[in-house]
User: Fold these one by one.
Assistant:
Number 1:
Amino acid sequence: MPDASIRHPSLDGTEIADSVLDLIGETPMVRMKRVSEERGIRCVLAMKHEVTNPGGSSKDRPALEMILAAEASGELQPGGTIVEPTSGNTGVGLAIVAAQRGYKCVFVMTTKVGKEKVDLLRAYGAEVVVCDVAVAPDDPESYYSVAERLTQERNAFRPNQYENPHNPVAHTNTTGPEIWRQTDGRITHFIAGAGTCGTLTGVGRYLKSMNPDIQIIAADPEASVFSGGSGRPYLVEGVGEDFFPAAYDGDLWDDVIPISDEESFLTARYVSETEGILIGGSGGMAVAAAMKVADAADDDAVIVVLNPDSGRGYLSTVFNEDWMMNFGFVQECEQCVGAVLDTRNASIENLLYVNPQQPVSDAIEIMRENGVSQLPVCKNTPPFANAEVSGSVDELELMEVIHRDPGAMDTAVEKVMSGKLPTIGVGQKVELAVSMLETAPALLVLSGGRPLSVLTRSDLLSYFTAVAEAAEAGL
């Protein structure tokens, strides 16, 4: 531990910060001029760029506020341990504060989070525990349950950003006043992603107190509860929820704009290439919503969108071509997997599936009626666009199960299902599908990050036959 008794020279008259914690806040605001020009936006569209916080995100603000409050209340004692579930940014903020004030950190993350975010937290000396994102919130192995168990086992302090009132307070005290000052009080709309709701509620409270006519608008993943979804599945990190956090204040919000994973990621790439501002998926989501608002706004509007972090945390996902192609967000070629699906019998639905709770007999009936041998097991359906894949069933495996136990016809599919089918993007090459089907019985085709269809060897044979017949006919 550092020796607190050591006296340091005064920094009076210098521009040297006393510690990295003094660098939190006072982030810049920049007009999105090139994006506005390309889209014909005549009003002011500006970005509050939180990347210049020492941890690279807006979460540094509540991290500091929550720890200072816990110290003042006695909840966090000298040399103590901090445990928090996080998608990365809050963890970094807490790790920075912990390093400065002598605490240990344990962070719980999901498999949805990119590897670089896990590595980043470990670089700060934190312990990281990764949980399966597909596990239900009330499962003992879920993101939230594991964090609660570790808090008890380590006799630790859990800031609990979802419930902690000092989360929105941080933004009411700092972010809101900065935005008001930087726009000279001319701001008409504020847009930010909805997650813990700390930013939207905290900034919204301050701005509404200064001018009740300012529009507070939440950008939200399509499947999140804030825009009427179930809370899953979606791929964009750090925003959206499957429950309403304590800081949620729907009366404060003037609108909620749902944005798909595809639009979020493609907007992040567009802004990064057009403005030279590298933003992540949640930043892309917020900007996509802000552009919709700007398209319909009056010429004298001043729209501020909060960019929470940098795209450097998404180099293995949003800015990785292989990842984007595998999830069906970008297309690799013209004659791709999508072309194979287009030649298939139109009577077959795009996505045939069975729910985990349905009996095995239902799965067999679906296979018989449609002449297929494999089915993905999906929940959160219908519609299939909201399907969350949890496994698969195969006719040969079901035959063996029923042969051993005829009563298994009434067993829930989830009791006998196998692992998930390998995935391929709708825009990936047919050659890749051929290679993958040499070892896999079928592939799950993704489009826009969502399951679209199951691709089989039979589908490929039909496609190659159609191509050959077209070539022979001179088409």
Number 2:
Amino acid sequence: MRRGVRVGVDVGTVRIGVARTDPEGIISIPVETLQRADDGSELDRLVDIINEFSAIEVVVGLPRHLKGTEGISAKGARRYARRICQRVPEVRVCMVDERLSSNQAHERLRMSGLSERDHRPVIDQVAAQIILETALEHERMSGRPPGTTIDMEH
């Protein structure tokens, strides 16, 4: 396993969930929920988080349909990942399949005893945590960095 903090991003149309790993890349920790802004200014805060933790990688969830196809949400996530890549070109930005991460996040919060109505402020952070856990598990199993790398040309 590579050492270094990874930042996980769950891209939504209203909110962006952010999580990070510890410096060893072993566990994931919720960080913040960012409100999407029409001018994209929430990206400034995301870049601050990436820099604050000296992240070696940003893992963006790729929302696919259950059959594996991509829709409007996936296109939006890819666009957002490219924007991150443009802002922090020195950091690897990749996409990881996030099918069912929101369902898993709700289930995790229910199991923790949090009522459904209290999920909204943290659900996106927990989804970002799950995206990171998926990426870390892939890296542990394969020995390779997870997901598909995004660059300016894609």
Number 3:
Amino acid sequence: MPVFTRFTETIEKKEKKRIVSITVKPQAADCTGTVWFTDLMLQEGDRLSGYVANTETLQKTYATGDEYAVSGKRFYNGIVRGSMTCIIFNLGKTTAGLDWKITPNQNMKAGSINLSLGAGAHKAVFTDASSAGDKLSLLASTRECLKNGSATSKDGFFQYSAAGDSKHPVTVEDRKSARLHVEFREMEDGDLI
């Protein structure tokens, strides 16, 4: 049975300039046996904040005899003023995609609403301005970014929650507020493809 070990490394920039491309060349030396490099991932920040499930494993909804398991979607509601960190409890056994729905209470400038993971990695920014009452959705389940039900642009990534609990910084325009709704299905590994 193969043994997989997770390694992380922080890459420091020499100058405060925008990165256009990165080349990664995995290497192994002074070892015997077979070496596999899988699931290489780059993310912002200096802390490891998550992982992506292996693509050979089908996922299934987590619904065991656990008294706290939810057979349908689990959801949380909240209100953010300026910025906050939302803690999401995912009792599933593996990563689950998050569907965020945000309703600004006041008009907000373009780029002022954003979501991220951990210490600010995996960031997503709504690039258009929004009005009070707009319905903004960033849906990992359908890979859509919507404003009032129509496709809209974003910069960044769809969001997810690792198994256990995960921190999600949420920011809106300073001194303004928005209502939050996040939902997801708790998942576990299923059969191999």
Number 4:
Amino acid sequence: METQERILIKAHELFMRYGLRSVSMDEIANHLGMSKKTIYQYYADKDALVDGTIDIEIERSKNDCTGHRNQSENAIHEIFMAVDMVQEMLKHMNPSLMFDLEKYHPKAYKKFLDHKNKFFHEVIKSNLEWGIQEGLYREDIHVELLTRFRLVTMFFMFDKENFPASKFTPGQVIAEITDNFLFGMATAKGQKLILKYKQQRQKK
């Protein structure tokens, strides 16, 4: 593995585990057993490392979402697979990560927002259209409005002001919001599937 790749992979691992603000360039260098000077040969500053970390996450989310679409039985199943992925990601992700990104690394945060507003928007919209075609979502739903609604509410799990960690886990927030989102637009046929997938997950 090349030195540049090693540096980025280790920085990504540490940022995800401890948050962005609490990991210094010294700590990254110590974990890698190299000098800060070596890191600076490849990355101008911490911002550049955070930027590279966001690139990893964007690429991962694209691959995961494409995989979900290819493997899912139907539109509702696709959403449950996505929530499973998020729940797994949350086990290895420091809850302060999004807050740190927005506050201390605005350039990387903008890159993430662009990804959210383009790629995730398309994934959600496509899912809603698919669900309508299958008769799982009501035909009268406003696709564009609900796409934007879903985009906003997906990230409520990081909103510590309204959903403090002392009362709710991020996993609880995304699961509860998703249930209400799905039941709100599902047909009778769709609601049976929602209950089926929920029961399957309770048995795990």
